[in-house]
Amino acid sequence: MLTINNLHASIDGKQILNGLSLEVKPGEVHAIMGPNGAGKSTLGYVLSGRDGYEVNEGSVTLGDQDLLGLEVEERAKEGLFLAFQYPVEIPGVSNMEFMKESVNAVRDHRGEEPLSSAEFLKLAKEACKQVQLPLDFLKRGVNEGFSGGEKKRNEVMQMILLKPSVCILDESDSGLDVDALQVVANGVNSQRDGERSFIVVTHYQRLLDFIKPDFVHILANGEIVKSGNASLALEVEKSGYAFLGKELEEEVEA
Amino acid sequence: MSEQIEQALERKYEAGFYSEIESETFENGLDESIIRRISEMKGEPEWMLEWRLKAYETWLKMDEPEWAHVHYPKIDYQAISYYSAPKSMKDKPKSLEEVDPELLRTYEKLGIPLHEQEMLAGVAVDAVFDSVSVVTTFREKLAEAGVIFCPISEAVHEYPELVKKYIGSVVPRGDNFFAALNSAVFTDGSFVYIPKGVRCPMELSTYFRINEMNTGQFERTLIVADEGSYVSYLEGCTAPQRDENQLHAAVVELVALDDAQIKYSTVQNWYPGDENGKGGIYNFVTKRGVCHTSSKISWTQVETGSAVTWKYPSCILKGDNSVGEFYSVALTRGRQQADTGTKMVHLGKNTRSTIISKGISAGNSNNAYRGLVKMGPKADGARNFTECDSLLIGDQCGAHTFPYIESRNPSAIVEHEATTSKVSDEQLFLCQQRGLDPEKAVSMIVNGFCKEVFKELPMEFAVEAGKLLEISLEGSVG
Q1: How is chain A split into domains, by residue range?
Q2: How many angstroms separate the CA of residue B364 from the nearest CA in chain A?
Q3: Concatenated DSSP letters for B200-239?
C-alpha cells in the first residue's frame, strides 16, 4: 500500500529524515515512537507534501502512484490523510461546509457523484456522534474555539467522513485525558476494516493500549533504528530511549 | 506558499467589455457653460440650475482632499467629459420596446435582464448608463403602493417639492470637494420616496454602468423614507476594462424620518485596473444618511472593484433612539487602494451604532479602514460597538486602521475591537490536505472571514457577493 524507500528530507537546509524506509501493507497499524526531534512530525508533513519540506533522496509510493510527484491536495484525494497534532482554526467557515467541500472534492476525484447537502448531513451527524461531539459542532467554524480534545476528535471525524486509505495520526493523543483518548481510539478502531492502514505517531505507549499496533518502530535521527511488535512500545515505556544511545554508539563504533 | 498566493492574484474582470453604442458626449472640460448645458439637456427648472452653479462656485474654491491613505496622479478635471448619453435615449423611450436593444443586451450580459418577466422576482431596477437612466422597472407596481422610484432627473420635474426639500439636506453642496463637484455636474441617479407607514413591496436597486471613454460618472441618489416606512435598496456598479483611469464621484443621501428603516446595500465592482495598476476607476463617493427619532439606517457594502476607493457611508443619528449600522467587506488586490469606513455621529439620546468592517488585502494592494465615532453632548446613553478585522493574503500587501473616537458625553459607551490576521500557510495546508485546491481554499477562508457582513445582504445578493469574491480571487493561488 504505502512504501517509503530511503527517504531523505530537509527543511530550511536542515536535514531531518536520513534514509527512512517503511513498508505499510493494507490493514496494518504501524506505530512510530521516538524522542523529541527525531523527525516524527516531519514524516507526516513530508508524506502529505507540506510546503517547505524538501525531499532530497528516496521514493514514496501509494498503491502504484509516485506520491512525491503529486500536489498536497492530489495526495489527499489519492487517499492519504493526516490528522494534525495542532489543528488550525478557520473562523467563519462551518465544519459542515468545510467537510462537504472536502468530501465532494475526494468523491469527484474518484468519479463519484457529489453528495447533496441532505445526504452529507446524514453522514456528518453519524460521524459526529461517533466521536461524541455535540451536533452543533457541525455548524461551528472549523476548530473555532474548540478545546484541544475537541480538535482531536474533530480530526477523527474528518477521517471517518473522508474514508482515506492511509491515515497518519500525528500525536493524536497529546493533551487528551483518558476519556477523550478512549473516544479518539474508538473512532480510529472503528475505521480499521482490514484494508485501511494507519501510521500512529506518538510519544506514549498508552495510546497503543487502545489502538493495538501490528508493528512499532523507533525513529531516531531521521531513520528507523529499531522495529518490533507491540512489546517494543512497552519496553520504551519502561526504560525510555536510553537504549538508543547505546545502540547508536555501538553503530558508530562499528 | 506565499509565492503561490502571489502568482495567484492575476484575475479576470468579467464585466470589462465595451458596448458599441452611439453616444452624445460633451467635449472634455468643465466650466459654467458645461453645467448650463447639462441642466438644459435635462430640461431642468431654474432653481436646479442655480443650485448647481452655486455648488460649482464653492467647488472652485476647494482643494482636493489629500488625507486619505491613497496615492494617485493628480486628476485633470478639464480632461474629463461631464456628460455622455446614448443617442437613442434622446427621444425618451416610453417603454422597454423602444429602448435600443444594444443597451438591453449590455445589461443582460451583466446578468441584469431588464424585461420584468425575466428579472429576479421582487427586485425593481433602475439602470443608469453613463449619464442617463435607461429604464426603471416595476414602476407601476410600486406606484400602487405609493412608492416613487424613478431617475432623479425625472423627479426634479415630477416631484420638485420633495427634491427641493431634501436634496443637499444630508450632504450639503459644499460638504467636500467631490460632493461639491457632484452637486455641480450630477447627471442621473435614482430617487426613492416611501410614503408614511408603507413597507416597500420589493427590493429596489440601481445598476450603474460606465461605458464611454474619458467620461466621469456623477450620479446622485436620494432616498426618503417617510415616517414608519421601510425600504431595502441595492446598488451595483461595473465599467469596461481600459488603460485610462476614470472618475466616479457620486453622492447618496438617505433620509429616515421617525420610525423609518432604510437598508442600503452596495456591491461595487468597478474596473480595478490591471495587475500593474494601469487603468481602473477612481471611486470617490460621499454617502450619508440622517436618522430621525427611532429610525434606523443600515449600510452594507461589498467593495471589490475600483483602482482607488474613497468612501465613508455615514449616519447622523439625530433623533433619540435611532440606530445606525455599517457592515463592510473591502477586498483589494493587485495595485488597488481603498480608504473606506464610516462615520457614526450620535446626537440624540440612546442612539446606537454598530460597525463591522472586514478588510481583505492581497497582492500589492493597500486597504485602510477609517472610521469616526462621535458622541455629542446630548447623546445620553448612546452606544457604539466597532469591530474592525483585517485579513492579509500574501506578504506584499498592507492593512491599516484609522479609528477616530470623540466623546463629549460621559454616559456614552464606545467599544472598539480590531484584529489583523493572515491566511496562514497552516490554514491552506489543512484545506489542501483535505483535498481542496488552493484557490477553493482561499476563497473559502475569505468567505468565512466575511460571513458576518454577508448575512446582512439581501438574500439574492448574498450569493452574488460570495461569487464575486470567488471570481475576484480566481487564480489568486497557484
Answers
A1: 2-253
A2: 23
A3: -SSEEEEEEE--STTB-B--EEEEEE-TT-EEEEEEEEE-
